[in-house]
Amino acid sequence: MSGGEPVHIGSIDQGTSSTRFLIYDHSAHIVGSHQVEFTQFYPDAGWVEHDPMEILESVRTCIAKAIDKATADGHNVDKGLKAIGLTNQRETTLLWSKSTGYPLHNAIVWMDVRTSSICRKLEKDLPGGRTHFVETCGLPISTYFSATKLLWLMENVDAVKEAVKAGDALFGTIDTWLIWNLTGGLNGGLHVTDVSNASRTMLMNLKTLDWDQPTLKTLRIPAEILPRIVSNSEVIGQICSGWAVAGVPISGCLGDQHAAMLGQACQRGEAKSTYGTGAFILLNTGEEITRSTHGLLTTLAFKLGAEAPTNYALEGSIAIAGAAVQWLRDSLGIIHSAGEIETLASEVESTGGVYFVPAFNGLFAPWWRDDARGVCIGITRFTSKAHIARAVLESMCFQVKDVLDSMHKDAGEKGEVKNDKGEFVLRVDGGATVNNLLMQIQADLLGSPVVRPADIETTALGAAYAAGLAVGVWTEDEIFAEKAERATIFNPELDEELRKKKLESWYKAVTRTFDLADLSL
Description:
Layout: E1 8-14, E2 18-25, E3 30-37, E4 49-50, H1 52-72, H2 77-80, E5 81-88, E6 93-97, E7 107-108, H3 116-125, H4 134-137, H5 146-156, H6 158-166, E8 169-173, H7 174-182, E9 192-194, H8 195-198, E10 204-205, E11 210-211, H9 213-219, E12 228-230, E13 233-238, E14 249-255, H10 256-263, E15 271-275, E16 279-286, E17 297-303, E18 310-318, H11 322-332, H12 340-345, E19 355-357, E20 375-377, H13 385-411, E21 426-429, H14 436-446, E22 450-452, H15 458-470, H16 476-480, E23 488-490, H17 496-511
Parallel strand pairs: 1-5, 5-14, 9-12, 15-21, 21-22
Antiparallel strand pairs: 1-2, 2-3, 4-7, 6-8, 10-11, 13-14, 15-16, 16-18, 17-18, 19-20, 22-23
Helix pairs in contact: 5-6, 10-15, 11-13, 13-14
């Protein structure tokens, strides 16, 4: 990649439980970073909220401290920082006052299920039922997406009702909130979102890449509160005074899973799975919109410039992956740190017949059952905490397997790229992929190879790529070139007959989770 004078690109990575700022050099190596965890609020069963002001402050802290670290290590970031990219947790929804700059309510997080009744009513009232908007936005009616969260806020929060009526409300996902504040806030802050985040609201037309007017009319959402939609790689605006990086352009913005696709350099027919709080599997379908008939979402992959072609994707979203490990740690105390689960699970060679389905807030793809709740079955007196730990790891891999099975059916042979042995290779990333046992289980249950890159933090890297591309630091050819860094390949070792039996048992366990949401407390 380009050399010469010091060149740096910054990347804001705003996730579900933490915020990070990373600084890359022209070779896409990290020269400084800082991470801050923020508070998760659970006001009621199935409800999850974040404080937008706390998130904003976490970004401010991370930027300042990452720059301090890089500077201390001899990197001239002040002069070399050419652009900043942003990637964020998708679907998480908030409204704020354009006159005060303050949120009108806490942000409602993507996994929150308080909008179940709104979803049921829409399904009942609209002629297309659950799939009424699929033709335009690619998404079913679900608690997952921003539109239903926005409706809940408009119906249930007086401050929101009043602000919308007075023309004082601004809607956005977390990217929109951060960009508005980074570019001036009350003093001319830019109210924008990007095509990938907009594609997760249920309100954007996948073909026109603009807000779908018939959908807005049906849901009675005023267009004035919505941000302007831009591509993933273009100069959006300059960072305002008061920030440690004032004057630097924001030139890349992608939802986290789309950023990971770019960081993994996924081209048409290639797929990646990111293991974080949830797990998200995306297959790049190129410039073609592929409709799913097997429970997946049709969504946008990325659009690398205002005039660039649009890449689309099939996506399978899993609500609970790494969050189940956090549950073992924080709620049950079975482990003291997330890293301990690999050691504990390795104490046994199998789960001893235990199957764990983490349907804490329902099941996402490919089941789409918000009436599901978590189960752990097959427990005997022989069962130990090691068996439970291994069952939790297996649950993450079984869920990914379910999604990939649907993906293979939807994409067909022509829609997938295979290796020399005729195998479909899954690229993986995210914090949980450091767990070698997890990756081996994944390969075993898929019956095909899993490839882990040398740098597993591909989400932040994807945002940096998008920002650097817009300001000429990198070219698309450089971003999508085969990387020399050594990847780790996990090949399946499990007997085929045993694999089939385990999958049958898993499906049996999944069906046990259905229709449990109304159990009395």
